[in-house]
Amino acid sequence: MDLIYRRDTQDERERKKKYDKNRKRALYFNFRVSATEKELINKRIALSGLPKAKFFIESCLYQRILVRGNIKTYEEIRDEMERIKDILLSEDKKDKLDDVDLASLQYILELLSSVFKDKKKEEQF
Predict the structure, then answer these.
(1) What b/e readout covers 108-124, taking b as 16+ CB neighbours within 10 angstroms?
(2) Chain centroid to CA 107: how far?
(3) In CA terms, which of 46, 60, 83, 85 is 20 to 30 Å from 95?
(4) CA-to-CA distance for 111 and 67, rounded, in angstroms?
(5) Where are any strands of DSSP class E within the chain?
(6) Residue 40 contacts by C-beta under 8 Å, 6 or more apart in sequence?
(7) How far apart are CA 17 and CA 68, in angstroms?
(8) Rounded distance, CA 118 to CA 112, Å?
(9) What is the 8-class DSSP label of residue 3?
(10) Side-chain-side CA neighbours of residue 106 (13 Å)
(11) pTM here?
(12) CA-to-CA distance for 61 and 11, rounded, in angstroms?
């Protein structure tokens, strides 16, 4: 049986990895869908005229999401608000809110705003 060997030229050069190419977006998100969901998603992508990656980024970041409150949601909001409060109350002025923290705070405020709007609508009826 012949042995598998590596050519000398392959050993000398370094192999570049995909994430070494100075990419702006070097991370991946994966999720599973059913066949029907895949078909519907692909149809929406085609109708939007956007590339798939841009469509998913726009969908995840900018579309309104219906959130059903539960204990897990409440705990996540509470923990995030505690973390932001600690940053804001810290005496060290170096600890400012970065873009991710600001976006997180904005999203929490939007969630709470929509909850209170829904409650007002229910009270009116």
Answers:
(1) beeeeeeeeeeeeeeee
(2) 12
(3) 60
(4) 8
(5) none
(6) none
(7) 41
(8) 10
(9) P
(10) 10
(11) 0.53
(12) 44
Query: Torsion-angle region of residue 3: left (phi > 0), alpha (psi -120 to 50) or beta?
Result: beta
For residue 69 the two structure tokens come to 């409150």
CA distances from 23 to 27, 61, 87, 106 (A): 9, 20, 31, 28
Token digits for 92? Answer: 């060290």
- Are 55 and 44 contacting, i.e. CB atoms less than 8 angstroms apart? yes
Locate 2 and state its tokens.
């012949």
Q: 73-80: long-range contacts (C-beta < 8 A, 24 or more apart)?
A: 77/108, 77/111, 77/112, 80/104, 80/105, 80/108
Residue positions counted in the chain: 125
Residue type, 100: V
Short-list 16, 2, 15, 111, CA closest to 65 = 111
pLDDT tens-digit readout, 49-96: 889 999 999 988 888 777 777 888 888 889 999 998 988 888 776 667
For residue 122 the two structure tokens come to 């229910």
Structure confidence by residue, pLDDT tens digits, 88-120: 888 776 667 888 888 889 888 888 887 777 666
| Residue the block writes with tokens 């994430």 | 19
